[in-house]
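Subject: DAGKc domain-containing protein

B.,
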Amino acid sequence: MRTVVLINPASGRGRGAAVAAQAVRRFRVVSAVRVVIAADAAEFATAARAAVGDDVDVLAVVGGDGAAHAAVQACAGARTALAIIPVGTGNDLARALGLPADPLEAVRAATDAVQGGHRRALDLGRVVGGQRFATVLCAGFDAQVNSRVNRSRLPIGRARYDVAVLRELARLQAMPLRVEADNVVLDVAATCVAVGNTPYYGGGVPICPGADPADGLFDVTVVGEVGRADLLRVLPAIRTGEHVEHPAVRTLRARSVRLGGGNGWTAFADGEPQARLPVSLRCQPAALQVLAPAAAKSDAA
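Prediction pasted inline below.
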C-alpha cells in the first residue's frame, strides 16, 4: 500500500501545516508514505497528477475545497483513491462524504477505510471542454458571493459567506436564464442556478438538498426573480434545505444540463471559477474513488 500525503500548508490560514505532521504519522501506521508540500496552486495540481501517474493507492489531500478540486482532476477515472483531510473555509466535499469536521478525526476515518479495504465510488460532474467537479456548479448571485468569499480576508468559517451575501445584495438582479436539463427546457428570469452532484456549497448550505453523488444524476435548483427583502427571508430556509418549497424555486434532475441565456454570468464549481455561460455539463457516474465512511450521512448545515 502506497500513499502520497499532499499538503497545502496555507489552507485554513495555516491549519494545513499544523495538521499535516499528525496526518502523516497516522498514515504511516497503515501504508508506506511519501510527503509532498506544494508551494502554490499550480504546484499542488502538478503534484497530484504526478502521484496518480505513479499509480499510488491513496492520494491524501490536506487542504480545503480548492485543494480537493485540484485532486479530483487528477484522480478522476483512476484507481487511486482520494482521501480528504479538511482544513479549509468551506470543506463541502468532506461534509458531503460524511467525514468528521475535525481534520484529525477525518484522518482516522481515512486510515480506518484503508485498513478495512473500504472505498466508495463517487459521481462527478464534467464541464464539457473544461474541468470536473465533485460538489456544486453555480452561476448568478451565489457565484458572485463565491467570488467575493475567495477574495475575503476574514477568518475562515461561515462568517465569510454571510458577510459576502450581505455585500452582494446591493447588486442583486434577476437575469435571463435558459436551463436545458435532459428533455426539459426552462426559460426564466433567474437570480441564480445551482447544479449539484452533492448537496452543499458555501460552507454547508444544502442548495441541492436531495443530491446523491451515487445516483448518476444532477440535482438542479433554479431560483427565479426575488427581491432583496424576499431573499433575506429565504436565507434561513436555504440553511435547512427548505428553500426548495418557495414558489420562486424550481428543481429538476438530469444526466446532462446546459446553462445559457446571454446573461454574462460566470460559473463556479467546487468554489473555483470555470467559464462564462453558456456551459454544458455531464454527470459521470462512479468516476472517483474516495476513502470515506461506508454508510455516511451528511448533517444538515
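The first strand starts at residue 2 and ends at 7.

T.
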